[in-house]
């Protein structure tokens, strides 16, 4: 690696090279990171950070997990890629393992990312013969054109209109509004079980069950987007499972590969067979290296009892943050290790910047909330170090300038 990439020089110098060489789609980088181990990261200037964002909920097992490193390097040395004219053992094994986490038979289409998983699901809905999709206010489903069509945020959508149409948005968590919007022309309802990008918004109890009944009554598909919440993030394998329902489509990505790009669209019942040969494709989806990474992630989560750790450390974070009783903290919402610290003033950008300077990577998805999506291996001691620093970060905010 050192022969191929030069990381000499300061972080500022590397950031300037980044700005000169990469398209400005993400803004200037906050730091140039050069190494990760467990729940920690190091930047080009040698500073250490506790990773409480996990690569936006991707690094489910932290950084450089030895089991993932071993599985991926071994697979790459054996069989790195084949076209989809052929199958590979890791692809088959991962599909079977994913399906074993559900209570009903289904089938899997592998992709490279979450937005691609949603593109596949979008095409499945068209195969019903209907075109109308109902999505929700505050929803985020990705940035490709189909996924963007069911994403709510106007700032993401407006520059790319017209998008693939016939999408209706209803208030999130409002079962009555959903019932009023769904009719016998509706192909699908797409829902996140928790809205991550909208500041970790949890719907009221009974919402997903109502969505299941409403879609069933009208012959529409229920499509659950588990891209951020799935693969153990909320303390269950998938967040919708706490509601005891069976969706027709589930899309997953992020935590599945623990840093190796992979996503999946799972269909159940009749939805599993709607796509037929020639309807859809992907060059890299189901790649043996990505598939073995997904299989390794699921294996480690089971082997190390990480769902229990997600619940235990998540609950510990919630109670510890709420116990601070700080005037800028309105509460904590979310489940497992997908949490948002709700703020009483719109200063999340300041808090995130101050936290980074203090050695903590967090995220500010909306002005009034700080999002935490750390690796599942986070310890209570790691969590306590952030909680101890949090009052000082909040006290340093400039409320007059917010």
UniProtKB/TrEMBL annotation:
It is an enzyme of class 2 (transferase). It catalyses: N(2)-acetyl-L-ornithine + 2-oxoglutarate = N-acetyl-L-glutamate 5-semialdehyde + L-glutamate. GO terms for cellular component: cytoplasm. N(2)-acetyl-L-ornithine binds at residues 143, 282. Pyridoxal 5'-phosphate binds at residues 114-115, 140, 225-228, 283. Pfam families: Aminotran_3. It comes from the Bacteria. Its cofactor is pyridoxal 5'-phosphate. Pathway: Amino-acid biosynthesis; L-arginine biosynthesis; N(2)-acetyl-L-ornithine from L-glutamate: step 4/4. Its main location: cytoplasm. Its EC number is 2.6.1.11. One of its GO terms (biological process) is L-arginine biosynthetic process. It is found in: Cytoplasm. Keywords: Amino-acid biosynthesis, Aminotransferase, Arginine biosynthesis, Cytoplasm, Pyridoxal phosphate, Transferase. One of its GO terms (molecular function) is pyridoxal phosphate binding. The modification N6-(pyridoxal phosphate)lysine is found at residue 254. Gene3D superfamilies: Aspartate Aminotransferase, domain 1 (3.90.1150.10), Type I PLP-dependent aspartate aminotransferase-like (Major domain) (3.40.640.10). Binds 1 pyridoxal phosphate per subunit. SUPFAM superfamilies: PLP-dependent transferases. Homodimer. Belongs to the class-III pyridoxal-phosphate-dependent aminotransferase family. ArgD subfamily. May also have succinyldiaminopimelate aminotransferase activity, thus carrying out the corresponding step in lysine biosynthesis. NCBIfam families: argD (TIGR00707), PRK03244.1 (NF002874). This is Acetylornithine aminotransferase.
